[in-house]
Amino acid sequence: MPRQDETQQPIRIRCAWAQGDPLMRDYHDREWGVPEFDSRALWEMLMLEGFQAGLAWITVLRKREEFRAAFKQFDPDRVARFGEQDIARLLGNPGIIRSRAKIEATISGARIFLEMQQSGAGFSQWAWGLAGGKPIQNTGPLPATTPLSESISKELKRRGFKFVGPAIVYAWMQACGMVNDHTEDCFRRKECARLASR
Predict the structure, then answer these.
(1) CA within 20 to 30 Å of 14's CA: 27, 55, 142, 184, which one?
(2) pTM given for the model
(3) What is the pLDDT of residues 138-184, one digit of tens each?
(4) CA-closest candidate to residue 175, choices 12, 19, 43, 16
(5) 49 noted as active-site residue
(6) Structure letter (DSSP) for residue 73
């Protein structure tokens, strides 16, 4: 009787969107749905989700390290000081998505982030406060938007953020673990739920 290969890993069931590309699989297994409470990291992800508008997330994921280098590791203090020379530099960078509107939205987003911080409204506390303070454990079909993402979108727009429509906001909420949208059979669902209960 043939012996089972001892190096063979158990089969892991993942969300359908993460089963093809190795980069998407790694992102799914390590990051997507993990509750993120760091203000800077939350802002970075919101800006990247904005760059994704009209494109596939894999496009942003493949360019993420270039984005981080181009936007100074998404340090809001540094990005807020970007001017026309920086915009020209970014528009000439083939490693990122070269959209003037999205680049300008990121720079203005950094300035809004700092204004919020200076007024005592930390971005993480503010965002999680709107989301109810703890991750939502979603069940059933995955929506593109929810009443909550529509509400957060309105608040972000009111503050001056751009590329923050309800669908982008919901994708951001999923990515940052404000909502656990791993499917019921996905191995990461219970892991993210455990992280949410800490």
Answers:
(1) 55
(2) 0.92
(3) 988 889 999 999 999 999 999 999 999 999 999 999 999 999 999 99
(4) 43
(5) yes
(6) G
